[in-house]
Design brief:
The chain starts with a helix and ends with a helix. It is built from eleven helices and seven strands. 56% of the residues lie in helices and 10% in strands. With 329 residues, the protein is an alpha/beta fold. Helix 2 runs antiparallel to helix 3 and helix 9 packs parallel to helix 10. The strands form two sheets. The protein has a five-stranded parallel β-sheet, sandwiched between helices. The chain has a two-stranded antiparallel sheet with strand order 1-2. Strand 1 and strand 2 form a beta hairpin.
Length: 329
Amino acid sequence: MALQNSQYDALMRYYQRLQFRNKHEQDAHIAEAQAKIPRLAEIDREIASISVKKARILLGDKDNEDFDLNTQIQALSRERADLLKTHGYPEDYLKMHYTCPICQDTGYVDNQKCICFKRAISEHLYTQSNIRELLKTASFDAFSLDYYPEDMINKSSGQTARQFAETALERAKDFVQNFDHSFENLFIYGDTGVGKTFLTYCIAKELLDSMHSVIYYSAFDLFDAFARNTFSNSETTEGENDYILNCDLLIIDDLGTELTNSFVASQFFLCINERILRKKSTVISTNLTLGNFMDTYSERVFSRVSSNYTMIKLIGKDIRIQKKILGGN
């Protein structure tokens, strides 16, 4: 998945800093060693001089006798290595030490992204996601169905809590698997503590690990960001707004816990509508029932969501309470 320009620029600035830092370190090594071993500077001048002399000969200079440049450079290089060793320095002390020897801190090898560049993308995306620490324990394998009782049955559907959870897990996995091939949005709803947020973490981790840009906001923080973007004209807020609308996946968690007013409702509609138009996926989690959701955000918002989102319901007992009981706390 292609990086946004701002993300790519940030990564290239990172590589520029690496190159500057390593060049500065090399220059410091050279200055230190030459101060202690003056002959090292003379060797560098001799290598430069014979290189120029050889070039002139190749260009037709008849005043100088031809010679084997490589042999002379090798001899001078051996002398330099011996001097460094004698004075307690490693033989490669004067060379550039790259953070990544594979690409020499350029990020590319043969016009292809180096493995270090791919790691840097992943690191950058994780940092921008807003939930880096929370994703350390998140995975679909860690989404345990044991917390969803089979004796809890939804009267309207006849399904058990475990069946709802199984369906939710499968739909989340399908969402990730098909992410690059089909446009889909998820609306995950249910009571407090039934695993909605953790399921969004699992989705986020899978997509971040496959180099997709994912950003997570609680509903409160998202609308706070919209307020900043609306009432401030700084480059920072413009960049944040652009990222909200253009990242591969936007996660809006705990929708309905924010203070809802006409501004919030209008900004919410603009956000989800714009992302639908741009075919950028969104995952929403909420404790609201579908009826309460429509009452809170208007029929227009409900219609846009219900016609463009896959609805996923979770029921059950509060998992946090279950964990405390099982842990004896």
